[in-house]
Write a structure and sequence with these properties.
The complex is a heterodimer. Chain A is mainly α. Chain A is built from ten helices and no strands. In chain A, helix 2 packs across helix 3, helix 3 packs across helix 4 and helix 4 runs parallel beside helix 8. Chain A is elongated, with a radius of gyration of 20 Å. By secondary structure, chain B is of the alpha+beta class. Chain B has three domains: about 55 residues; about 45 residues, no CATH class; about 160 residues, Protein Transport Mog1p, Chain A. Chain B is about 50% helix and about 20% strand. Chain B has nine helices and seven strands. In chain B, a hairpin with a 2-residue loop joins strand 1 and strand 2. The relative contact order of chain B is 0.10. The chains are: A mainly alpha, B alpha+beta. At the A-B interface, helix 1, helix 2, helix 3, helix 6 and helix 7 of A face helix 3, helix 4, helix 5 and helix 6 of B.
């Protein structure tokens, strides 16, 4: 029978193989959300500490990155609550934003990293969250719903609206006429 | 299907979220509609652009010192001496007992990462069965559209690799997608066997020291396939084959030498971006 030390080393080996390859993307996501390196490092460290503690609950062969992202979101929510900050999901009515996205403008052919990240940063945080998890981290709708604790239908509607807003911002970034949307709406 | 309906589905199509029937219906529409095909490409470009911007933005990258410190702390916390800092001793003892009882196959399975499974699946479905849903593209195209590192596989490993188990001769070089993951893929033949070298992006950035880059890791056999891997900051390279263990080890080590040079290049490419 393995002794305690060997068993723990084996747990670490499993964790290292499954979870550690995702640390880079976990950090980038944390950094995007927190916008503060110290906070992001703290968040990632706490996330991995909890993940290692509860690694026995992880089902091998499932999406480990999605599992880690859901822990990261959970830790982040708890911290914001403890610090008395507003919840991650604001109470802003989605319908209001929906009415501002009547037209998806054509996007410029060549976009720089700065233009893309700048445009993403300018759309409301709730849309940033789903776009980062879906388009950057490539989580499924179902995994995003679990990670953010929202219904899958809300994930889909936020993605739809968020991508349209992102494209509007990308067009604005190139000085193209966004008022086309208003014209189209009137037409 | 009308263009309006198709455009509603394009993002879900890219995210592989559509039902099979809807997928086929959309593909039929795309094959006959250049406007919607162009729109699909525009959306793919934004998605890919965002992924690359995240990977390249210096502001979003992890400090190497933090990565090293984090790995050290986590590793230490998994050892008995360090556990008291994080959890009560009685809990640790109970957890250890459970771990010991449940170890065996469970622990073996946990070592098999998701990416490793996909690499094995790509070897089976691409090199062996030619059964991929998406047609492979050239490494040149993949390097331009997805990741410059794929271009390195155009010449590495060389077309012929001599080993004690026989001479490996290249059969194909391309980029393909399996299970939503893109690989740069070099297929070798050795008698009646196929050997795959598969490179893919991996979120390891900052978690490996430079010393680890050239180290070949032996992975548990999966579905009868021998598996070995090399990792860099940003990419993983897998060697996969149905060769018997002794021959597989010889072949993997022979391929590891040029591949490790490629891995080091891949790391400098990413840092250089």
């Amino acid at each position: 029978m393995q002794d305690d030390s060997e068993a723990r080393q084996a747990v670490w080996a499993g964790f290292e193989a499954e979870a550690m390859p995702h640390v880079g993307s976990l950090f980038r996501t944390a950094m995007w959300f927190e916008r503060d390196r110290h906070e992001a490092e703290d968040l990632v460290q706490e996330t991995l500490r909890r993940a290692l503690e509860s690694f026995h609950r992880y089902t091998p062969g499932t999406n480990c990155r999605a599992w880690l992202m859901s822990i990261l979101q959970h830790v982040r929510s708890n911290r914001r609550r403890a610090k008395g900050r507003s919840p991650i999901v604001s109470a802003e009515a989605e319908e209001v934003l929906a009415s501002t996205v009547p037209f998806v403008p054509p996007v410029p052919e060549h976009l720089t990293d700065e233009e893309l990240l700048g445009a993403l940063r300018r759309i409301p945080a709730r849309y940033q969250d789903v776009i980062v998890l879906s388009d950057v981290e490539e989580l499924s709708y179902k995994d995003i719903a679990t990670t953010l604790s929202i219904p899958i239908g809300t994930v889909m509607s936020r993605l739809h609206r968020g991508r349209a807003l992102l494209r509007q911002e990308l067009t604005k970034a190139r000085g193209q006429v966004v008022s086309m949307s208003a014209d189209r709406r009137r037409g | 299907m009308q263009c309006r309906d198709a455009r509603e589905l394009l993002d879900s199509f890219i995210g592989e979220e559509l039902l099979v029937e809807t997928n086929h219906e959309l593909l039929r529409h795309l094959s006959a509609c250049p406007e919607c095909s162009a729109e699909l490409e525009r959306r793919r470009r934004i998605r890919l652009g965002l992924q690359q911007a995240f990977r390249r933005s210096p502001d979003l990258q992890m400090r190497q010192e933090f990565a090293d410190e984090l790995a050290t702390r986590l590793r230490a916390s998994a050892q008995p001496a360090a556990r008291q800092a994080w959890q009560p001793r009685w809990f640790a003892v109970a957890a250890s007992l459970l771990v010991v009882l449940g170890a065996g196959t469970y622990l073996l399975r946990t070592r098999i990462s998701e990416v490793t499974r996909l690499a094995a699946g790509d070897h089976q479905n691409c090199a062996v069965k030619f059964a991929l849903q998406e047609k492979p593209i050239s490494l040149k195209e993949a390097s331009e559209r997805y990741d410059p590192a794929y271009a390195q596989l155009v010449t590495t490993p060389p077309d012929t690799v001599r080993t004690a188990a026989g001479v490996l001769r290249v059969a194909d070089r391309h980029s393909c997608v399996f299970g939503g993951r893109r690989f740069g893929h070099v297929v070798f033949r050795l008698d009646d066997h196929l050997v795959s070298v598969l490179m893919t992006q991996d979120g390891l950035a900052g978690t490996s020291s430079k010393q680890d880059v050239r180290q070949l890791s032996w992975l548990p056999r999966m579905n009868g396939l021998g598996m070995a891997s090399l990792r860099t900051t940003g990419h993983a390279v897998y060697i996969v084959s149905d060769l018997q263990d002794s021959d597989f080890r010889v072949v993997a080590q022979a391929l590891a030498q040029p591949v490790s040079q490629l891995a080091a290049l891949g790391m400098s490419l990413e840092v250089g971006d």
